[in-house]
Amino acid sequence: MKAMTRNSFKNYSFAAFVFFLSIALSSVFYIYRDYLKDASTLGYLGLFVVNFISSATFFVSSPAFLTVIAGGHLYSPVNVAIVASLGASLGDMLGFAFGHSGRHLAKKKLDKHKTVRFLEKHFHRHGMLIIFFLAVIPNPFFDVIGILAGMLNYPPMRFFAIMLVGRLLRMNDKGLIDKPQDIAERVFIFVTRVLKMTTQLPRNSINMVLINQIIRSATSIGANIEEARGAHTKTDFTYGMNLAKKEARETCYWLRLIINTNYQLENRLKNLLQENEEIIKILTTIVKSSKTRIFSS
User: Fold this and answer.
1) pLDDT tens string for the chain (297 positions)?
2) Lowest CB count within 10 Å: 10, 138, 203, 290, which one?
3) Within its chain, how far is the Cα of 96 from the centroid?
């Protein structure tokens, strides 16, 4: 009886520890979210830590993908993918541990429940496909799968291995393993969309001014990136990327004006504005990472 009480106390303690650890990590992520966005400046360790914390926080969105994209520019894309995948997979094991400890807390009740036995049987049979599929596709529900897998006594090493492979393939889908994430190509597509958008705007005195301004600033983003890619020094690279970031911010300003003065096109242009903002974030991360490498060299 005493042994059972001690085991119950250990299970309760472990479950409480895992839960409060996740809450603490979520708080850290929220408070220092701007700093963590620049974690790629700390090298592979920074990439590992930010992806670990991002996955260890229950149901909290994160900017970890930005550090991965920026890291793909600064370091070996293969190494970035492996480090980020390991960090994210280990972080997701926290949810698995939480579910596993919860199962032990209510073992007697859950073992007698027909629904739980049914789920456990079929999850052990088909869980590999579910875990793999959800690990490959970015989604906010993977925390649930980790907790569920732990509650249904899924083998922890098998869960980790399947999840790790899925994470690596997700990085490959982002273009990090086979080729670096090419911000230049992304900007080229964005600028092309901007140019097509300008041809669809009504020709009036206001729009003509805005069209000229946004064409100038948008095309300058890609031009500065291409110039930076051909730079001979880290300083010149950083300078070019910083100019591209400034042009991207200016483009965002003109795009917001176009949306506000052409309200009938607002819904059609929201995605374009969102892409503009994502490009600014990526360029900001690249510039900060480049500056850190210059100062540390």
Assistant:
1) 444 456 555 656 766 666 666 666 666 666 665 555 555 555 677 778 778 877 777 655 555 666 666 666 666 677 778 888 888 888 888 888 877 776 666 655 665 667 767 777 888 888 888 889 888 887 767 878 888 888 888 888 999 999 999 888 887 655 454 343 478 888 999 999 999 999 999 999 999 999 999 999 999 999 999 998 888 888 888 899 999 999 999 999 999 999 999 988 888 888 899 999 989 988 888 887 777 665 555
2) 203
3) 20
